[in-house]
TrEMBL record:
Gene3D superfamilies found in the cross-reference section: 1.10.1740.10, 3.10.450.50, Winged helix-like DNA-binding domain superfamily/Winged helix DNA-binding domain (1.10.10.10)
Protein known as: Sigma-70 family RNA polymerase sigma factor
Family annotation (InterPro entries): ECF_Sigma-70_Domain (IPR052704), NTF2-like_dom_sf (IPR032710), RNA_pol_sigma70_r2 (IPR007627), RNA_pol_sigma70_r4_t2 (IPR013249), RNA_pol_sigma_r2 (IPR013325), RNA_pol_sigma_r3/r4-like (IPR013324), WH-like_DNA-bd_sf (IPR036388)
Source organism, top-level taxon: Bacteria
Assembly behavior: Interacts transiently with the RNA polymerase catalytic core formed by RpoA, RpoB, RpoC and RpoZ (2 alpha, 1 beta, 1 beta' and 1 omega subunit) to form the RNA polymerase holoenzyme that can initiate transcription.
Alphabetized Pfam families for the sequence: Sigma70_r2, Sigma70_r4_2
Gene Ontology MF terms: DNA binding; sigma factor activity
GO biological process terms, semicolon-separated: DNA-templated transcription initiation
RNA polymerase sigma factor 70 region 4 type domain boundaries: 95-144
Domain (RNA polymerase sigma-70 region) ranges: 4-66
Length: 285
């Protein structure tokens, strides 16, 4: 029991990085726990054994998954809030999206070897491949995701300042302020999953994004409410109650000092853990 609990946070992070879903990651870790309980002989290396079990369970899910093929609109990973993340890894939301373009084996090899620091031999054993093949898998994955790696880390106070300034400008339809914050090629991605109203396709380009926020300000008389700034998958962001009384998270990708990506999650199925975390936070009402 103690050996498993000691590994649980790391196993949860691995499963989330593999699947992009907090709920699915929790299910996988629970399945791993059930398997662990059935092990009768002592395990010499519990951490390696449990990593192998979780990685293989995730691969099984990834290979059999069909949900994303019929997903309504943009698909974004479930928002992972800063206290749940590991400050030693630099997997931001944008890098998570880059991982989505990899094969399951490439993704597993990259995460285990490059992110979690697992030795190549152990990765080969986990994936049931020889070391040379795993080295190639990790190298291909590294090449594909290289451009998505964060170029610098935003300090928490600066992240809060950016998030709050963007929230105020977008809420008020302040086009002059937004124009100073946004990159020319800014893109908005919005994930409602068909459950709530969201943009079905990305909104691309500064002019279109400015028109969008100006239009929202004119259309809705009830302004959104900022709940609190957050760090979401390594990016500055916030949770808010948006127009229509919908809980949403907004994460902001920064490039050269400007906001280049706006990632909005509105799908309530992906926000249950966020709602629970907000409710449990000190001062929550």
């Amino acid at each position: 029991m103690a050996a498993f609990e000691a590994q649980r946070p790391r196993l949860q992070r691995l499963a989330y990085r593999m699947l992009g879903s907090v709920a699915e990651a929790e299910d996988v870790v629970q399945d791993a726990w059930l398997r662990w309980r059935k092990v009768e002989a002592p395990v010499d290396a519990p951490a390696a054994y449990l990593r192998r079990v979780v990685a293989r369970l995730c691969l099984d899910r990834m290979k059999s998954a069909r949900a994303r093929e019929t997903y309504v609109g943009d698909w974004l990973p479930e928002p992972l809030l800063a206290p749940e993340s590991d400050p030693s890894d630099d997997l931001t939301l944008t890098l998570m999206l880059a991982l989505e373009r990899l094969s399951p084996l490439e993704r597993a090899a990259f995460l285990l070897h490059d992110v979690f620091g697992v030795a190549l031999g152990e990765v080969a054993s986990t994936l049931d491949r020889d070391a040379a093949a795993v080295r190639q898998l990790a190298a291909r994955a590294r090449k594909h995701v290289q451009a998505a790696r964060p170029r610098f880390r935003v300090e928490p106070a600066e992240a809060d300042r950016i998030a709050q300034a963007f929230f105020v400008a977008s809420r008020d339809g302040d086009l002059q302020a937004l124009q100073t914050m946004l990159a020319e090629d800014v893109v908005i991605h919005s994930d409602g999953g068909g459950r709530v109203l969201a943009f079905r396709n990305p909104i691309r380009g500064l002019a279109r994004v400015l028109r969008l926020y100006a239009g929202l300000r004119r259309k809705f008389t009830e302004p959104p409410i900022l709940l609190r700034p957050l760090v979401i998958d390594g990016l500055p962001g916030y949770a808010s109650i948006d127009r229509g009384r919908i809980l949403q998270t907004t994460a902001l990708e920064l490039r050269d000092g400007r906001i280049a990506g706006i990632y909005i999650v509105r799908n309530p199925d992906k926000l249950r853990h966020v709602a629970a975390a907000l409710a449990a936070a000190p001062g929550a009402s």
